[in-house]
Amino acid sequence: MLPLSAVIFFTSGFAALLYQVIWQRLLVLFSGADLYSVTIIVASFMGGMGVGHLAGGHVADRVTPRAALLCFAGAELAIALFGFFSRPLYYDFLYNRVGDTQIGAAAQALLLFASLLWPTFFMGASLPLLSRALASRIERASTVIGVLYGVNTLGAATGALLSTWVFLPRLGLEGSLRIGVVLNVACALVLLPSVALLSRSREPAAEPPAARPPGDLTTFPFAVWAVIFACSGLLALSLEIVWFRVLAVTMKGTAFTFGTMLGVYLTGLGVGALAGSAVSSRIPRPAIVFLLLQAAVGAVAMLLLTAFIRFADNMPSLWAYLGSYEPLDIRSAISSRPDQQVWRMFVALYVGLPCVLVLPPTLLMGFSFPILQRVVQTSLARIGRRVGVLLVANVAGSMVGTVLTGWLLLDRVGTAGTMKLLAILAGIFGVLAVVLALRPSSSSWTWSRRMPAAPAALLVTSVVFVPLLVVMPPSNTLWAHLHGTVVEAMEYVEDGSGLSVVNTDGRNAILYANGIGQGALPYGDVHTALGALPAFIHPAPRTAAVIGLGSGDTVHAVAGRREIERVTCVEIIRGELATLIGLRMRLPDGGLVNLLDDPRIEQVFGDGRIQLRRGGTYDIIEADALRPSSAYSGTLYSDAYFALLRDHLAPNGLAATWAPTQRVYNTFIRAFPHVVSMPGVLVGSNQPIAIDRAAISARLAEPAAAAHFARAGIDIERLLTSYLANPTVYGPDSPRDQLVDIDTDLFPKDEFDLSPR
Description:
Shape: globular
Largest sheet: 8 strands, mixed
Distance between the termini: 48 Å
Helix content: 55-70%
Structural class: alpha/beta
Low-confidence stretches: 200-218, 442-451
Mean pLDDT: 89
Number of helices: 27
Radius of gyration: 28 Å
């Protein structure tokens, strides 16, 4: 029965991660992609699973194995039912009907939790139910539970990788959801015939009390082990956040970064759990081994990150890439030959680096899970409850780690400081392990008897961890190395919302947002044209909204039209403005001075699409130039987004976008009745757009506007002339039927495009 159940549970884990990736994407449309919203979504997902872990464990210990398997099959069908209706719930109802309602933070968090509770509850209940059904002898409990955990996690890893690299690029969100529904139904249907073969009789109600395999398995009370496993969850999720920050910067924030990292992370957990299951019954003192493994997780994670930072500048090709403005072209890489440099860089970034940084520590995490089951599982009658309590404790710790790291530690001590604090937490596990090791395995546990061993344990652990803390570089060195520069040439600001870095030589500067180039100084490229074109085409603008700050080029260009009374800039990374303020001391560029001293510019931090949807109307709306392959870029290039711009334009208002692909052209032109197309830039409106070259030139020649651009060193007349030379105009009657290949919220094709160039 175990082999078949393992295959089913692998499939169940695959579907669960597929759902998680898609549901998070759909809920981001409703609540936003800012730090607070994403944290609440992740915490709600984990919280629902925690409730399911607890309930599933209590149910499992009160029913027969046959009934537990039936409950598992019912849970799979319940998840499938929700998956089938999740797109109408999350997109049609929450986003389209509730999305423009002003909702308080607490109410939004409660709504997100409630919307995820049904499926995550049944996902969480599955492991306790299967564990109790399949563990027929207490001696095999740790092996059975470890195997189930391992195969389910490997299924989740496969789901994370395939959803990112196969299903979303080919099927979009809605098509991928259907796969999850089919898999959940298949799990239930395959299991049911096997359930019918099991005996209907209830297992014996009791077994010898305190039945305990040899090897000192009750070193602490069970409640203490639950607290320890909660701390393990805090360590694991905090490390995941740190790894994602480092990998996002190194890979330069593509849509494939998170799924790749998550796939490697879960692979390590799954393989480690299977390996631990094979040896857990033969480990003589599993409590000590479990604690040592937790200590090793932090030590190995810090050692590998430190080594990568220290040696990154010794690899010329990697160093050059880290300092480059553009991300790796994944479409070109996957279609290239293995002997080409772009292919080797792709393998290094998306396979080699995650495997080096993430895989070894997560293997240790996974290996420790069945070891812990060996410690705490002492009675068949309590297997389900103990699995459930341990998992809910781990989930609670993970939720604390998510909030603590994302909302506090990254703000206060940065990535390097957070890594050091996590190493200290891992060191505490090491202290506990040494304390236990210093006593005979036959003696019983009391706190008073352990205290004399604490100084020796602290000394032993310090010998390992203090050198690691010393050699771990500070955050400024970390980010200088991962941007191909030196500390002296860099300004940076880091918090939970992201990382903003400026690299300058005193005359020029490049701004990086999470590792990817997002603008340069002096101003004067496509960002300037993107901002200036709608500002000077519009006959009388008064208000403007710009999504994205970057280097400030687009906002600066919009503000060149002096009749505009207010320019609202919405930026999701809070540190970008502070980085530009710090850069001003090193590079007193005229354009930067204009930007920072202009009282008309209002800076708002948050998700631009949400701010726009719940705000008013504007004369000009646009987003700063964003690469279509960047993570969540599809939310700013979809037909629904352009419709949102259209609906929030004041009379005669203009919306503008950078148009880096044919799909963006198609999508924008289908969304607006009136469009002017220029090289790389589209301007749309609900009313006809007048391109009056003489009037535009007169506006550019006004003293205030001319002085504004002159201080920035921009020949604005010459720049805009190249765009206005031969515009193409679309009206309501212009044919659009052939523009069928578009980006939508449910299928952001450009963001996940892997087709060969």
